[in-house]
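Suppose a colleague, Dr. K., hands you the sequence of a protein chain of 104 amino acids and asks what its three-dimensional shape might be. Before reaching for any lab equipment, you can write down a predicted structure in token form. Begin with the sequence itself:
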Amino acid sequence: MIQYSDLNNDEKRTLREHLGVERVSAFYLEDNHLLLMDVKELFEYIYLDDIYKLKDAMEVIDRIKDTVISDNYTNKTVQEMLVESNSKVTKISNEVYLYKDSNY
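The predicted structure, expressed as tokens, is then:
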């Protein structure tokens, strides 16, 4: 998990612009169930953390194999493409993604 204080100034500005706020307080992201992660951590969080049985794994594999690759994803890994195609994900920078966790 990435902390807001760990972001560089450009990433902080991009995040604030996306959220439509002027300042992000210490607990703003937590209070709004927003997570900052790198692509690997977010991919695991979205697609792999809830796999407990073979059926769940097969559903994830089916989702991956049925994903259509568009021109927007040139020079991206499959992991980046899947994370960026999720409607709850916003790309803040090449290293940082914002995720709106609806499990709460």
